[in-house]
Design goal:
This protein is of the alpha+beta class. It has a single domain, classed as 4-Layer Sandwich (Anthranilate synthase), CATH 3.60.120. The protein is 28% helix and 32% strand. The protein is built from 8 helices and 16 strands. A hairpin with a 2-residue loop joins strand 10 and strand 11. The radius of gyration is 19 Å and the shape is globular.
Length: 317
């Protein structure tokens, strides 16, 4: 039985399971919750592998980042812009690895991270994701694309971000893409909240981010097709681009290496409802952090380079 069929069968049988699917969909993993190994630890919004919550606080030193030079970044950025100019893509997510010097205790990071989702596959990575992929509750499916960031300490940060033409265009493109994606698996798809502002805590202060919410109604037999539904929506539009298939091919060429579980998804299905996240804010076991952002015609190279660096953080403070 292949991976998708296995998830569909578990869904049909209403068996709770957890899963990881990498960006390239080459090495997916899934376990029944009762069989989940200690090597996979998770904190979803309504489920956790943690047996008891820790009450003591902890902090880590500020990360010492070693980003690529701006000229090396510009080389990849120019390749993206060339693809945009040719019409091969009109929005592409470019990601970059950044070594960090501090030796981090991943157990402490997992225990104390202040993030909506924390996913730890031991010996491989830990991710502190603020972004939901899809949620399913009582037959309704919803997604919450997150596009647009700013240093929240700037004067009028919220207004600056919400009124930025580049950020508006990028966000609207992703909302349209994901509305179309949901229409492949659900009916009555609609945008329920367009471009709402949130602040995410980091070691270096607050980051402002903009999200939207989109929802639809699944068919009654959705649990028996849960694996197929997930795969119909991959890869996540917010971390690939549009058009999705061609842009994913360009990403592989320009980035030059598989992303693996970075920008893939992780999720928990309880037999009826599902919660899942996009694997961003991602630190590999070799202390290389992965981050990036969406590039459009209106992008500014220096700003995109700085955004990529600003997203390198561990939310333990």
């Amino acid at each position: 039985m292949d991976f998708v069929e296995q998830l569909n069968q578990w869904g049909h049988d209403k068996k709770p399971f957890v899963f990881l699917i990498d960006f390239e969909q080459k090495k997916p993993l899934a376990w029944l919750v009762d069989d989940c190994p200690d090597s996979f630890q998770f904190k979803f919004t309504k489920a956790s592998s943690v047996k008891k919550e820790l009450k003591c606080a902890t902090t880590i030193d500020e990360l010492i980042k070693q980003p690529i030079t701006i000229s090396d970044y510009q080389h990849k950025y120019n390749q993206v812009m060339d693809a945009l100019q040719k019409g091969d893509s009109f929005l592409m997510n470019l990601t970059i690895p950044t070594p960090v010097q501090n030796k981090l205790d991943f157990q402490s990071c997992f225990d104390h991270a202040k993030s909506k989702y924390v996913i730890w596959l031991k010996e491989q990575f830990i991710a502190f994701s603020p972004e939901t992929f899809v949620q399913i509750e009582e037959g309704k499916i919803a997604t919450f694309p997150m596009k647009g960031t700013i240093d929240a300490s700037l004067p009028n940060a919220k207004e600056l971000l919400l009124n930025d033409p580049k950020e508006y265009a990028e966000h609207a493109t992703i909302v349209d893409l994901l509305r179309n994606d949901l229409s492949r698996v659900a009916s009555k798809v609609r945008v329920t909240n367009f471009r709402y502002y949130e602040e995410i805590p980091t070691q270096n202060g607050l980051i402002g981010q903009v999200s939207s919410s989109i929802e639809g109604v699944l068919p009654k037999d959705y649990a028996s097709r849960i694996g197929s539904i997930l795969y119909d929506l991959l890869p996540a539009g917010s971390v690939s681009g549009a058009p999705k298939k061609k842009t994913a091919q360009l990403i592989a060429s320009i980035e030059g290496t598989d992303r693996g579980y970075y920008t893939g998804i992780a999720g928990y299905f309880d037999g009826v409802n599902l919660d899942s996240c996009v694997l961003i804010r991602y630190l590999a076991a070799d202390n290389v952090y992965h981050s990036g952002g969406g590039i459009t015609f209106q992008s500014d190279m220096a700003s995109e380079y700085q955004e990529m660096i600003n997203k390198v953080y561990v939310p333990v403070f």
